Amino acid sequence: MSRREKAWWIVGGILIVLYALSPIAWIISLSLKGSSDIANQSFLPTKAVWDNYTQIFTGTASDLFLPALRNSFGICLIATGISCLLSMFAAYAIARLDFRGKRLILSAALGVAIFPVISIVTPLFNLWRQIGLYDTWPGLIIPYLSLTLPISIWTMSAFFREIPWEMEQAAQVDGATTWQAFRRVIVPLAAPGVFTTAIIAFFIAWNDFAYGISLTSTSASRPVPAALGLFSGASQFQDPTGATAAAAVIVTIPVVLLVLLFQRRIVAGLTNGAVKG
Amino acid sequence: MASIEMKNIVKQYGDGFPAVNDVSLDIADGEFMILVGPSGCGKSTLLRMIVGLEDNTSGDMVIGGKRVNDLAPRDRNLSMVFQNYALYPHMTVFENIAFPLRLSKTPDDEVRRRVTEASDVLELKEHLDRKPANLSGGQRQRVAMGRAIVRQAEAFLFDEPLSNLDAKLRGQMRTEISRLQRRLGITTVYVTHDQTEAMTLGDRVCVLRKGKIQQVASPRELYEQPVNLFVAGFIGSPPMNFLPATPKGTGLETPFGMVELDERRAAKVKGHDLVLVGIRPEYFEDASLVDEARRPLGSTFKARVDVTEWLGDSQFAYIPYEAPEAVTAQLRELSRELDSEELRTQAIVSIDSTSRIREGREAEFWLDTRKVHVFDPQSGENLTRDAEAGAELTRLATQDRVEQVEESKARQGGATSVGAA
Question: Is any Cβ of chain B less than 8 angstroms from the Cβ of A275?
């Protein structure tokens, strides 16, 4: 690549990054504007204030926001954990074993993943009320599994397929049972895959709005995206824009943290040296 | 340690293709057995059936007197070195070697002792804390061997262990494996397509072709008394030359003149109108360099040399010849089966490195006729094979092995050694 070409790539890259980050910058700037400052017609706040943050953590919106934050974390973590565990077994079977209906499982998973959420929300709402799952944690965890499992199975089975068969056969010859070979050889090797899958699953659950708003009614289980929609201003003539922006910033933080934290684990290359190099 | 017996082993895949077809083979306790053949001959499949990674369709697999057909790999107590080593990349070298011991819940200090011993034998001591990714090819190979010798397995199985190494390292590791096997005196089955490995390592060599055993014998017997065209062509490098010939009187008429046969061989050839004479490259010599005493033992002929290759210690000359259409097709088929592409009918001749024979010139060659074999071109059968002489060669090799195993056992009586069962 010539120097000139390189320069163009760098400029292009910066432009794209700026474009992608501009909504986030805007949200941050909004969250720092005071209530009278929101319509100031400029990007930056006239004077940066923390009012919106105090409002959602200690002020009027805290009753809505704090339980929602707790719910979101709890529900999403549990849903991610279960979906990782289940998809690990499913993906292993799909990648390694030959059984009838293997293709059916994969295509059914894909079918579930592309099925529009909104079309099953109403029947689910009725069903959940009948069997007492409405407005409970399990009432959200179960639908979240239906969102996260298909994609988890697909990503995980791709990772399992990458692991050389010999690894496992070597373990078996060394005296391992199928379970020991899975746990002591396959799972550690698939760790980057498991982390990637976990993060994707967590995001999907974390970002859900349709289930969150329809299947909950109180702070007993309402997740953050649903709670944001219910914010109200200080008076009925005031928009809750500032508070919503502040809450949006807060819910973005765990996502960013997760990626930064596990970045190194996601980067593959762990299997280097397993086989001839 | 144990013997391995295979009785009428068949492996049929889903499409009915028999990868291994009715193989019966006895491997004695402490013997080094080589499975060799061109790619697709079923040698790896056979090895994987011994270790239990593949089921056999029919037949019996008996290890140490026990039928193991239905046993899982972990219950067969064999250790195996894979072609690509299959080291566990997330474990250190120490843990890789210790893995079989950890699985059998061996106490920690015992694990440490055994791994240290194994790493001493394989000179891996300074690498124990490293990960496989940071090792060279040869070191990875040794780690894989360490994992095999660290426990008291009934037998070692090797699946083309050296094919990923460069030529120099391959030579070193070959010697290393040989030394290790002699020292531990453990039954070993070794799959390879490299005939140098087959010849140098094996007590006996089993040559496979399309899932069927062609010949099981000591390397010497394979070389001197092959049963058929396939074995004769496969063993030896450069390969044996096959010349079309017609019996005439007590000899054979070949493109390189008359080849006289002794009575025994002449009698066996009688009645065939077209045969193939198998002549190894080293049976030829530059006629001007043959001393007078040896000259009458063979015949001389004149031929034009196409190409010569001078290698310092040896020299090869290529002599093209005309062959009838029927034989050419036959030979081409054979060379394809042996994984080589022999495009023209030419003889490869080994001559003394001091010979001044020049390319493109006519030269006089001498041919030692005492050891030539004659093959039936249709069946490929060796018409002049001396079964007794062959058996004698293998008997001598077996005797050598038994002595070596006993010696190693006597040595191990005193000192403790890794993997000694």
Answer: yes
Question: What pLDDT shows up at residue B63?
Answer: 93
Q: Considering only residues 164 to 183 of chain A, which have any Cβ-Cβ distance to chain B shorter than 8 Å? A: 164, 166-167, 169-177, 180
- Does some domain include residue A268? no
| Shortest distance, CA B83 to any CA of chain A (angstroms) | 9
Comparing alpha-carbon positions, the chain A residue that sits nearest to B72 is A172
Helices (H), B162-289: 167-184, 195-201, 219-224, 229-234, 263-269
* pLDDT at B375 (0 to 100): 92
- B238: preceding bond cis by omega (within 30 degrees): yes
CA separation, residue B17 to residues B47, B57, B279 (Å): 18, 11, 35
**Which tokens sit at A152?**
């988890």
B167: contact with A, CB 8 A cutoff: no
The domain tally of chain A equals 1
Q: Which run of H or E residues covers position B346?
A: strand B346-351
Residue A122: give its domain's CATH number.
1.10.3720.10
Is A274 near chain B, with CB under 8 Å?
yes
Average pLDDT for chain A: 85
Which among A173, A271, A276 is the nearest to B89, CB-wise?
Answer: A271
Q: In whole angstroms, what is the distance from residue B185 CA to residue B28 CA? A: 11
- For residue A233, the SS3 value is coil
End-to-end CA distance of chain B: 6
ipTM: 0.80
Q: Identify whether A29 is part of a domain.
A: no
Is residue A237 domain-resident?
A: no
Pick the closest to residue B257 from B266, B248, B270 (CA basis). Answer: B248
Q: Identify all chain A residues contacting B84, using CB atoms and an 8 Å cutoff.
A: 164, 166, 275-276
Three-class secondary structure of residue B41 per DSSP: coil
Q: Which residue of A has its CA nearest to B52?
A: A173
Contact A55, A247 (CB under 8 A): no
Cα separation, B337 vs B214, whole angstroms: 14
Question: Does any CB of chain B come closer than 8 Å to the CB of residue A163?
Answer: no
Half-sphere exposure of B417 (CA within 13 A, CB side): 19
Task: Note the pLDDT tens digit of each residue in A63-107.
Answer: 888 899 999 999 999 999 999 999 999 999 898 888 888 889 889
Q: How many residues does chain A have?
A: 277
Whether chain A has a CB inside 8 Å of the CB on B103: the answer is yes
Phi, psi (5° rounding) for residue B363? -145, 160
Residues of the domain holding A202:
62-230
Domains of chain B: 4-223+393-414 (3.40.50.300), 238-383 (no CATH)
pLDDT in tens, B368-382: 988 899 999 888 899
Residue A246 placed within a domain? no
Q: Do A275 and B73 touch (CB under 8 A)?
A: no
CA dist., res. A130 & res. A139, Å (int): 12
Are B183 and B23 in contact, with CB atoms under 8 Å apart?
Answer: no
